[in-house]
Amino acid sequence: MNKLLKKSLLWSLAAITAMGFISMGCSSNGEFGSSSDAAQKVYVAPGEHDEFYGFFSGGYNGQMGVYGLPSGRHIFTIPVFSQAPVNGYGFSEETKAMLQTTDGFIPWGDAHHPELSQTDGETDGRWVFMNENNTPRVARIGLDEFKTQEIIEIPNSAGNHASSFVTPNTEYVSAATRFSIPMKEGSLENMDVSIDSYKENFKGTISFIKVSDEGHMSIDFQIMMPGFNYDLSHAGKGPSDGWSFFTSYNSEEANTLLEINASKNDKDYIAAINWKKAAEYAKQGKGEMIPGKHYRNYIDHEEGGIAKSEVIEEVRVLDPRKLEGIVYFLPTPKSPHGVDVDPTGQYIAAGGKLSTVIPVHSFAKMQDAIENEDFAGEEQGIPVLKYDSILHGEVENPGLGPLHTEFDGKGNAYTTAFISSEIVKWNIEKTEVVDRIDVYYSPGHLMIPGGDSENPDGKYLVSLNKITKDRYLPTGPELFHSAQLIDISGEKMELLLDFPTEGEPHYAQGIAAEKVKKNQKRFYEIDDNNHPHATKSEKETKVVRDGNEVHVYMTTIRSHFTPDNIEGIKVGDEVYFHVTNLEQDWDVPHGFAMKGANTSEILVMPGETLTLKWQPKKVGVFPFYCTDFCSALHQEMQGYVRVSPENSDTPISYSTGQ
Ligand code: K7E
Ligand code: CUA
Question: Among residues 177, 200, 201, 331, which one has the fewest Cβ atoms lying within 10 Å of its Cβ?
Answer without folding.
Answer: 200
